[in-house]
Each structure stands twice: as C-alpha cells, then as structure tokens.
Amino acid sequence: MRHGVAVLACLVVVGSLPLSVAGASVNASISNVDVSPSTPAPGETVTFETTVRNLENSDAPLEINDIAVRKSGGRGVTEYDRVSKLGSISPGSTLEVPLTASFDSAGTRDLRVIVYGRDRGTGENVELRYPVKLNVEERHPQVDITANDSVAGVESTGEVTVASGLDSQITNVEVVVEGDGVEMTKSRTVRSSVAQNGSITAPFRFRPESAGEHSLTATISYTVDGDTTRTTTRTTVIDSDPLRNSVELDTTAVGSGTDRALRVAVSNGANAPISDIMVSATSENASFQRVLLENISASTTRQVRLNATMDEPRADVTVTADYELGTETEQTATETTLRSVPGTIDLTGLDVIRQGGRLQISGSASNVGSTDADSVLVSVVDTEKVTPATPNRDYFVGTVPASDFVSFDVYARTTGNVTSVPLAVTYIVDDTRKRQTFDVDTNQMGGSVPQPEQDSGSGGGDQNSMLPVFVAGGLALLVVVGVLVRRYRRGDDDIEV
Question: In whole angstroms, how far apart are CA 252 and each of 246, 255, 280?
C-alpha cells in the first residue's frame, strides 16, 4: 500500500464545439480551456482558464451572461463554479475567464464548461459548451515525523523526512511543524528542491509545556510543474514525561601539604540534561577556585577539581552546584572537611644499646606527612642527667621524602637513674622550621657491648696484662677516627639548633 500522498492528473481536451446562431448573426465558440495544474491532487484548487472567441465573420457582439463549470451527465446538476456579467465580445475578439474547482477524492471527473450568452443582433440566447475530462490521484511526497523522548519544560528534538516518489523533482519545499501544548523553538525548514525519488530531512526543536500526550503536525508545501503549489500534512502524537530533578555531589580530598584540592563528582540523575553548571566551594578557613561546566547529560557524571588555598590545617567546606534544568535554576550542596597534611617527622624503630658508659640510640626519622621534610637533624638534648656523647652528639638526616624514612644513630651519657633520653628533631616544611622533642625509653635497650675480662691466672704473663691497654688504645683510635670523619662531614662537631 502506498504511504504518503502523490498526485497524477490527465486532461483530455475533446475540442471546441462552435455553435452557430440562427440567422448567422453571431458565430462564436469556446476555443480553449487550459487546466492548471494538469496533475491535481485531492483537495487542490484547479483553475480552468476558459477562452471564448467571437469570430470575425460574426455580424453582432456576443453578450456573456455567465460561464460555469459543471459535472457532465448523471442525475441532477453539480456546478463547481460560475462567473456572471462579463460584458460583450465584439466580432474578432476573445475573452479569457478563469474558473476554479477542487475535488475531495481521487478519481476521474467528466466536466463541462458552459457559456451562457445573448446575440446582441437578434436578441436570442446563445449557449456554448466545452467538455473536459480530469483524472485526480493521490500522489504527494511521503512524510514521516520522528521525535526523541521528551520531558515537560525541557527542549527536545525531532525531524521530518520528506521522500518524493513523484515523476519529477519538486521545488520551493517548505516544512513547518506545529504542536498542541508544545512550544516550538525551531519549526521551519526550507529547501530549494527535492530530486525525483529523492528525500530531505528537516530538523525541529520543541519544548512540551506539560507532561502527557501532545500532537505534532508537519505541513509540507512544495511546487510541481514549475508553478503549481501543493500542501500536505502529517500528524503524530508524543508522550512527554514529567520533569525529575536529581543531582548529587561527591567530594574527595586530593593533593598534598598546602597544595590541597577537592575533587567533586557531579552526578546528573535527572531525566533531562543540566546546563550552565557552576561548581564552587566556601569555607571560613580556605578559598577555592570555581569551575563552570556547559552541559551534563542525563545519567552522566562529570568530575572537576577545585584548588584550595588553606589558611589553617583544617577547613569545613560547603560545596555547591548551581545549574539550569529545563526552564528553572536549581541548586544542590554537600558538606565536607579538608585537612592540610604537611610533612611531619616521627621517630620509629627505636633501639637503645649500652656501650660502657654510653647509650647508642638507633632508629628511623620517618615522614608521616604528605610533603617532603628538609634539613632534618636529630640531636641528644643536654639535661642535668643526660649529656650528648661522641661520636654522634647529633645526626644530620637531610631530606626525608613524603611517606619515607632515613635511619640515624646518636650517643648519650647518663648520670644516675635515667629512664628516658630526650631527642630533639628539627626540620623545614613549606619554608617553615619545625622542632619536636621525643623521650626515648631506656627500657628499649637491645643489649650491651661486652667488656674485656682480665685473666687472673699466671699463664698469660705480661702479654695478658697488656691486653686492656691495647683494647683501650684501639677504642681511643676508633673514637678519634669517628670524630675526624664527623668533622669532615659536618665541619663542626657542635652545632646549636
């Protein structure tokens, strides 16, 4: 079955039937009836351009009272158009009169154009007839309307497809879409032509005013045969959903030290796109950048980064997203806390070993922060019962990267009953010098270095008696070498911090 509308008409001109008047006073005829368009469609206006001629051999003018187009044959009289009081035609002259008619359905029409006149010479009535046969068929281009899912108050899109199945190209094609309860934001498309058996697509945009069913009607106007304008329409029904607003924010702290930021995920759970999204954050203890997003589709998430400048280590933050949904301005917000975590040194893995009258304290300077700690120095604090001792009264650790550690060794002498040894740690973070003090429990001792024993027997003689001297000399030599190495490394064995 053919979809769309097409038109075909055939006109058969049987010929003029001149009518001679008694007494040969008037010799006149309908010389031609020009039908336009020659291929009419149902409902289309057809023009019958009728030419009446009074021949030169007539002896009197022909007075034209009426010209009509009627159905030929059948019961009763069906008249489509009539024009009256048209004046007279002198011998040798013509008169052209347009008549119009339209036909609601396809089919063949047998018609007749009739001229009712009067012989001005004899006063007798004159009647001229001209038969017309017209074939009307449904042949318009095929039209189809498609529309995307729509939501009340939200602009949506669609398109009209016009496919021409006619025998020749159509020109001056205009597509106009109108809606019931729908605001059209783009409704008109014009194309210069559509080729024979070709097609075009006309986009349109619309905004339903409410949820529910709405009709969309596309009207297509076009020209055939160069001068005949036709119009056809197509209607479809759409069902628009109610607008649902659901936008959520999720925040994550990122960055390190003072270079902190918030990563914000904007999730559009609404059933329509959101646009002009401004994501911002406010706090009494920090300031943030703002980020603008143009559009987030429905059921889609976008992430943005809000860089922060913190005045204090902790900031309570309100994150807000302002956006357009449909024709309304909406807002959603969430609360979070942002903390600055600069580099921080802690002493871990501590171990205390007694070496004669000294304590060797070993461990790691561990950076438990998220930025580097520079110029890290571990020192034994000089107190009433604790004295820094060689070879390492302090230990220059240097730089400890974030989440890393560097080992150290320091020495101390104690007097009396001492349960802990204080260690001072100084370092620089974000151009700021920090100082911390740690009390190292002497109960963490890992053992002691064994002292050389004297043999009371007679078997060793003088050689055994000299052993303590050699041991003491060796220890002294080790101390001197250690001091020289330390001085070489530091340039100064006693650095005050």
Answer: 20, 10, 14
**Model-level pTM greater than 0.85?**
no
Distance (Å, whole) CA 483 – CA 390: 7
Report how far residue 69's alpha carbon sits from residue 341's, in angstroms, rounded to the nearest whole number: 98
d(CA 190, CA 181): 24
Task: Give the residues across from 232 on adjacent strands.
Answer: 220
Render pLDDT for 126-182 as a digit per residue (tens, 0 to 9). Answer: 999 999 999 888 778 999 999 999 999 999 999 999 999 887 889 999 999 999 999
Assign 247 a pLDDT band (cuts: 50, 70, 90). Answer: very high
Q: What is the 3-state secondary structure (H, E, C) of 63-86?
A: EEEEEEEEECCCCCCCEEEEEEEE
Residue whose tokens read 């203890």 = 285
Exposure on the CB side of residue 52, measured as CA atoms within 13 A: 32
Tokens of 128: 């001229």
Query: Rounded to whole angstroms, how far apart are CA atoms 172 and 229?
Result: 9
Which residues touch 9 (CB under 8 Å, ≥6 apart)?
Answer: 37, 38, 39, 40, 41, 134, 135, 136, 137
